[in-house]
C-alpha cells in the first residue's frame, strides 16, 4: 500500500456513461493485483475530506487506470480534470482475485455492468482464455466488450430490456453454460449483491469454485468505518469481516449468504 499524489495522463469518456482516467503512478502500478482497488481524494474538491474507492481497471508499466461513472459531485469534478492535474491516491488496497495457473481450470468471468472494471486485469493476466458474461439493464450499461475480445476471450452479453445481446439476466446465461459443461470451470464475479448471491448458489449446485468481489458497499476503504462488513463462516459459526481489508474478494463458500441483505 502506497500513498502518493499521482499525475493524470488522460481523462476521457470511455462510453456513453463512463469515463476512464489514466494516472502516472510508478510506485503503485507494479504492485497492483487483479481485483484490488484505489482510494482516491479529488484534490480540487476542497470540501470533500473523504476518499472514494475505485476498482483498478488496468495497470501496466508505471501507470494504472480507473473506470468511473458520474454519480455525484465528486465524480462530476473528477470528470472535468485534465492531463497534468493531480489526485491523492492510496493503493493498491484489498485482497484481489487468484490468477488461475497455466493448464488449470477454465475461467468464467461474470460481471454486472460496472463489475467489468474489476475483472479486466484478471482476464489480462490469466494464462488461458475463457468466457466473459456481461450483464446490464440496457445496452449502454455494458462495458469493455471490445477490450475483452481483444484479449482473445469469448464475450456473451445480456440485457434486461433486450437492447444488447440476449434478453435476460447475466446469471441465466451462466446457468445455461454450466448446464452444458461445468467440469473444470472456475467462476470469478463482480457486480450487485443479488447477482453475486445467484452466482454463489450456482457454484454450490454445480460444485465449482468461485471467487466473488463484494465491493458494492466500500466506503472508507481502510477498515475503519465498518460499513462494508460481510458475514464470513468460521469453525464456531460466523463473524463479520471487512470487505475493504479482508476482501473485497472472498471464496463464495466462506460467505454466510443467508445473513447477507
Account of the protein in words:
The structure is a single chain. The protein has 261 residues and is α/β, with parallel strands linked by helices. It folds into two domains: 2-93, Translation factors (Elongation Factor Tu (Ef-tu), domain 3), CATH 2.40.30.10; 106-259, 3-Layer(aba) Sandwich (Rossmann fold), CATH 3.40.50. 18% of the residues lie in helices and 36% in strands. It contains five helices and 16 strands. The chain has helices spanning 73-79, 116-125, 145-150, 170-180, 193-206, and strands at residues 2-13, 18-24, 37-41, 52-55, 58-60, 63-69, 86-93, 106-112, 131-136, 154-159, 166-167, 185-190, 209-213, 229-234, 237-242, 249-251. It has a seven-stranded antiparallel beta sheet. A seven-stranded mixed beta sheet has the order 11-10-9-8-12-13-16, sandwiched between helices. Helix 4 runs parallel beside helix 5. The radius of gyration is 18 Å and the shape is globular. The protein starts with a strand and ends in a 10-residue tail after the last strand.
Low-pLDDT runs of 5+ residues are none
CATH class of the largest domain: Alpha Beta
DSSP helix count? 5
Overall residue-averaged pLDDT value = 94
What characteristics describe this protein?
alpha/beta, Elongation Factor Tu (Ef-tu), domain 3, 2 domains, seven-stranded antiparallel sheet, seven-stranded mixed sheet, 36% strand
Amino acid at each position: 500500500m502506497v500513498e502518493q499524489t499521482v499525475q493524470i495522463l488522460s481523462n476521457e469518456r470511455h462510453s456513453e456513461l463512463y469515463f476512464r482516467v489514466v494516472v502516472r503512478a510508478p510506485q503503485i502500478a507494479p504492485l497492483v493485483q487483479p481485483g484490488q482497488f484505489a482510494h482516491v481524494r479529488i484534490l480540487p474538491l476542497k470540501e470533500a475530506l473523504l476518499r472514494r474507492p475505485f476498482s483498478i481497471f488496468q495497470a501496466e508499466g508505471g501507470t494504472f487506470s480507473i473506470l468511473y461513472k458520474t454519480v455525484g459531485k465528486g465524480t462530476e469534478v473528477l470528470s472535468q480534470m485534465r492531463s497534468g492535474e493531480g489526485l491523492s491516491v492510496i493503493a493498491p488496497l484489498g485482497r484481489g482475485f487468484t490468477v488461475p495457473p497455466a493448464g488449470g481450470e477454465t475461467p468464467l468471468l461474470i460481471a454486472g455492468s460496472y463489475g467489468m472494471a474489476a475483472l479486466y486485469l484478471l482476464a489480462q493476466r490469466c494464462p488461458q482464455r475463457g468466457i466473459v458474461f456481461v450483464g446490464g439493464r440496457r445496452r449502454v450499461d455494458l462495458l469493455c466488450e471490445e477490450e475483452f475480445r481483444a484479449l482473445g476471450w469469448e464475450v456473451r452479453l445480456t440485457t434486461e430490456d433486450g437492447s444488447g445481446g440476449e434478453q435476460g439476466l447475466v446469471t441465466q446465461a451462466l446457468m445455461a453454460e454450466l448446464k452444458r459443461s461445468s467440469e473444470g470451470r472456475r467462476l470469478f464475479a463482480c457486480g450487485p449483491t443479488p447477482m453475486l448471491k445467484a452466482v454463489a448458489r450456482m457454484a454450490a449446485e454445480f460444485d465449482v469454485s468461485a471467487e466473488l468481489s463484494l465491493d458494492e458497499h466500500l466506503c472508507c476503504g481502510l477498515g475503519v468505518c465498518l460499513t462494508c462488513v460481510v458475514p464470513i463462516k468460521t469453525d464456531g459459526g460466523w463473524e463479520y469481516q471487512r470487505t475493504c481489508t479482508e476482501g473485497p474478494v472472498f471464496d463464495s463458500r466462506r460467505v454466510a449468504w443467508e445473513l447477507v441483505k
